[in-house]
Amino acid sequence: MRLNLYILLFGLILSNSSKAQNTAEEICGYQHEVNKILAKQPNFLKLQDAWFQEAMTLYKQLQSSKRTIVSDTLYYEVPVVFHIIYNTSQQNVSDAMVTSQINELNQAFRKLTADTSRIRSIFKPIAGDVKIQFKLATVDPQGNPTTGITRTSTTQTTFATSRGGAYNTNMKHSNLGGKDAWDPTRYMNFWICNMEYPNYFGIVYGFATPPTGAPNWGGTGVTKDVTDGESGVVIHYKVLGKNNPLAPVKYTEGKTAIHEAGHYFGMRHIWGDGTTTTGCSVDDGIFDTPNAKQANASCTGQNSCIDANNDKPDQTENYMDYALDGCAAMYTKEQAFMMQYVLTKLRTQLSKPFIVSDTIADPKTIKEGYVIYPNPSVNNKDLTVEIGTKIRANYTVCIIDLNGKTVLEKQVPTNSSKTIPVSGIAQGLYTIIIRDQNGDIVHRQLHLFIE
Ligand SMILES: [Zn+2]
Predict the structure, then answer these.
(1) Catalytic residues
(2) Beta strands in 57-120 (DSSP E)
(3) CATH class of 361-450
(4) Do domains 3-352 and 361-450 have the same CATH topology?
(5) Contact of 318 with 267, CB cutoff 8 Å
């Protein structure tokens, strides 16, 4: 899907009392961002395909071993900062609008939205809880308290540059009339600004930087989205939040930011961004989003590509299609996994995992079980492993990374606690297993976080 086609697809004729104007609404500037990356790193798409494949291979492995990357009792909290860049008082959107957008993001990413009632029954079983929760930052990069919202007055009347969906990224730079990003390795940056085309009636609603710098990236000096100070999401001020009084009728649900946050966590459009001729042969790298030829603009749910196996109609309910507000209500389970993969492997310092409801037994009372704490281990705090009094001697504790590599192995005597230093272990997500003296696995804990 190329830009001029977007405009063809989404070009509407708006009538008012005296005249009709052509309008070009670009829902999303993803292709621009991809083109920019391609200019610096021509093999971007190949690299992207490779890490999608790597992630999906891991997904299949975890599925077959009945493991998940994130358990039901855990979610990730991502600190976000909203930079409001305004030239008029109208563009200086309220804190309430920001808060409502955070709400909508959380409802969508945790699969808590009432909009899930829109999901057709064929797709209900594959709707996924991404387990990412967004929270306005409470501490700024200098360590001072903050509301997580910055406000910058600018002389720039718009950041869209010309008809055709082009825009600059000056909103991300203080010396160009915008606001510098907060450390993008630790904060998810949103910029809210005017993206209406100058001298032409049209708008870019949003764009986001896809993650670059995957483990397979290779090479030196190649582009990495966090090092250019532009990592994050940009949203046109009129479509921020729920029931924004400035929003066009079609965009009152705050879905643009949900879509762009998906790109930021590695999602591609569900139709795979092919052209009209390559449409059905280009995929988004996710198995449980049915193949689609092109962006859908409405909830009609046409079936634009017939798949040989398990054919399903286009998933217009998906946040990564273009039907968005009024239709969109889900990410799939595989998309959820991919975003968790991006968070744990590509945006490693961004989030904190939280355990929602795991209860830890009092180690002193355990007789037959095992307790390992603290989890997460923050600042490399030593782990304590308690082995129940009824357990036989000589158990071995192994800490294993996501690739299956054992990064630490320690013997634990029975009926005692063992302190395990984890200072030599990199930040990340691990599995712990305990083997008995015969080498048999007697206990497995799927999620150990070392921060
Ligand atoms: Zn998009």
Answers:
(1) 260
(2) 74-86
(3) mainly beta
(4) no
(5) no
CB 261 within 8 A of CB 206: no
Domain boundaries, the chain: 3-352, 361-450
Per-position DSSP letters for 382-417, written without gaps between them: PEEEEE-TTSPS-EEEEEE-TTS-EEEEEEE-TTSE
The pLDDT assigned to 115 comes to 92
Q: DSSP state, 408?
A: E
Residues whose CB is less than 8 angstroms from the CB of residue 371 and which lie 6 or more positions away in sequence, other chains included: 360, 361, 363, 385, 386
> Which pLDDT value is given to residue 218?
53
Here the tokens at position 132 are 């990412």
User: Do the Cβ atoms of 80 and 264 come closer than 8 Å?
Assistant: no
Q: How far, in Å, is the centroid of ligand 1 from the Cα of 19? A: 31
Give the number of other CB atoms < 10 A from CB of residue 94: 13
What does the pLDDT read at residue 11?
Answer: 29
Q: Which residues of the chain have pLDDT under 50?
A: 1-22, 356-366
Distance 273 CA to ligand 1 centre (A): 9
Cα gap 240→393, rounded to integer Å: 60
How remote is the CA of residue 368 from the centroid of ligand 1, in Å? 52
Task: Write down the pLDDT at residue 72.
Answer: 57
Phi, psi (5° rounding) for residue 144?
-90, 155
Provide Rg for the chain, Cα atoms: 24
Amino acid identity at 211: P
74 forms beta bridges with 355
Which one is the CATH code of 3-352: 3.40.390.10, 3.40.50.720, 3.90.1210.10, 3.40.630.30?
3.40.390.10
Residue 16: predicted pLDDT:
28
Predicted local confidence at residue 388, as pLDDT: 62
Cα 69 to ligand 1 centre (Å): 25
From CA 156, how far away is CA 162, in angstroms rounded? 14
Q: What 3-state class would DSSP assign to 12?
A: strand
Strands 20-26 and 417-420: unpaired
